[in-house]
Amino acid sequence: xxxxxxxxxxxxxxxxxxxxxxxxxxxxxxxxxxxxxxxxxxxxxxxxxxxxxxxxxxxxxxxxxxxxxxxxxxxxxxxxxxxxxxxxxxxxxxxxxxxxxxxxxxxxxxxxxxxxxxxxxxxx
Length: 124
Hints:
Helix content: over 70%
Low-confidence stretches: 6-29
Largest sheet: none
Number of strands: 0
Oligomer: single chain
Shape: elongated
Number of helices: 4
Mean pLDDT: 80
Order of helices and strands: HHHH
């Protein structure tokens, strides 16, 4: 019945959460506290500042894409349920996946802006 069809979701979801939480940041990317990020965004002047921000936003985009993919997989699981479009989580999970897609696009756009700024900024 419907419970046996969504049971794999209960196995898959913790695995996806664990995997996304255990991923390491890409080499060369900087992890900033909220305060450090706010300060750097407000005071970025040098090539290094803008490169650091570009790397940060590239990492944000990668994480958003990974979350989008995970939620798309959940949507596919709900679609396999007995009454997929009536399942209460189907539409909400799709909305979350779409939101992460938009977040990834925006983070990529910001990264590209900072890469442009880095090319036209002084080295120090």
